[in-house]
């Protein structure tokens, strides 16, 4: 009996020693790797979008023959709408870029109220001079400071405003003459805020001031209305307040899939 107990004890000791040795030889599995954090949001990339808003022009019209102010330059405002495209590049929190915009203008507010002109040329009739904007195009650099998905920016560049030409009308007789349609050009400054509400779409609110050079138009000799008179716009300007929606390409790049090591 003593010999049997001793044999059983020895066998158990051998089994326990073998199991411990096998466990020590087993390779431990590493815990699964945590997925890497998503890449930080970036404003870099090309974008395209549309905008809507209002424009207020100041375009006084005077003449050099009678020294009259045919239009005091006040404007009741006009609806504008169009599109934009551009490019941003972000370094840390700083964003630089370039943007071009084109908007149509629904404007018939620069017609003036008319001026009574006496004397041989005026015959006591009432005359009015008008010109109305038809489109606005701008090209500007943008400089911004990004706070994650919110971008505050300023812009500076140049712009062009198309108009339908000077129209001089004898309101008494109904005779009129139109000509000189072309465009104004000038400098642009502006500022705005843009919010990326998804990885691809952003909303912006922007104000722009466009300072323009003066234009002149001389009524041809032989015209039934103030022949030989020269009309000048002075120094017009255009102020715009717009909201816009942009779609940005190459946004929202997915984080790389975690690498799983098999043992």
Side-by-side strand order of the widest sheet: 1-4-5-8-9-12-13-16
Q: Count of DSSP helices?
A: 1
End-to-end Cα distance? 48 Å
Q: What's the β-strand tally?
A: 16
Q: Give the helix proportion (percent range).
A: under 10%
What percent strand? over 45%
Q: pLDDT average, as an integer?
A: 80
CATH architecture: Beta Barrel
Radius of gyration, Cα only, in angstroms?
37 Å
Note the main sheet. 8 strands, antiparallel, barrel
Structure, explained:
- The structure is a single chain.
- With 263 residues, this protein is mainly beta.
- It has a single domain (45-248), classed as Porin (Beta Barrel).
- 9% of the residues lie in helices and 52% in strands.
- Strands 1-4-5-8-9-12-13-16 form an 8-stranded antiparallel β-barrel.
- The longest helix has 24 residues, at 2-25.
- The radius of gyration is 37 Å and the shape is rod-shaped.
- Mean pLDDT is 80; it is low at 252-263.
What's this entry about, in short?
The chain contains 1 helix and 16 strands. It has 263 residues and is mostly beta strands. The C terminus is likely disordered.
Topology:
Elements: H1 2-25, E1 45-58, E2 61-63, E3 69-71, E4 78-91, E5 94-106, E6 115-117, E7 125-130, E8 133-147, E9 150-163, E10 166-170, E11 176-179, E12 183-196, E13 201-212, E14 216-218, E15 230-232, E16 237-248
Antiparallel strand pairs: 1-4, 1-16, 2-3, 2-15, 4-5, 5-8, 6-7, 7-10, 8-9, 9-12, 10-11, 12-13, 13-16, 14-15
Core attributes:
263 residues; mainly beta; Porin; eight-stranded antiparallel beta barrel; four-stranded antiparallel sheet; 16 strands; 9% helix; disordered C terminus
């Amino acid at each position: 009996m003593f010999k049997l107990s001793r044999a059983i004890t020895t066998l158990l000791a051998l089994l326990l020693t073998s199991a411990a040795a096998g466990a020590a030889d087993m390779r431990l599995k590493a815990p699964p790797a945590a997925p890497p954090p998503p890449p930080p949001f970036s404003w870099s990339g090309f974008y395209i979008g549309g905008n809507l808003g209002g424009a207020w022009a100041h375009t006084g019209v005077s003449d050099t023959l009678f020294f009259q102010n045919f239009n005091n330059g006040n404007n009741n405002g006009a609806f504008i709408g169009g599109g934009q495209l551009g490019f941003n590049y972000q370094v840390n929190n700083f964003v630089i870029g370039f943007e071009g915009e084109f908007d149509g203008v629904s404007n018939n507010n620069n017609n003036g109220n008319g001026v009574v002109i006496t004397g041989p040329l005026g015959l006591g009739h009432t005359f009015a001079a008008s010109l109305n904007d038809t489109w606005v195009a701008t090209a500007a650099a943008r400089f911004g400071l990004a706070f994650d998905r919110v971008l505050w920016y300023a812009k500076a560049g140049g712009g062009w405003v198309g108009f339908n030409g000077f129209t001089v009308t004898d309101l008494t007789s109904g005779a009129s003459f139109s000509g000189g349609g072309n465009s104004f050009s000038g400098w642009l400054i502006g500022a705005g805020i843009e919010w990326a509400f998804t990885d691809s779409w952003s909303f912006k609110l922007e104000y722009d001031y466009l300072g323009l050079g003066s234009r002149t138009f001389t009524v041809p000799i032989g015209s039934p209305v103030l022949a030989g008179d020269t009309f000048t716009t002075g120094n017009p300007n255009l102020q715009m307040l717009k909201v816009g929606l942009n779609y940005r390409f190459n946004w929202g790049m997915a984080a790389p899939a975690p690498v799983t090591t098999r043992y």
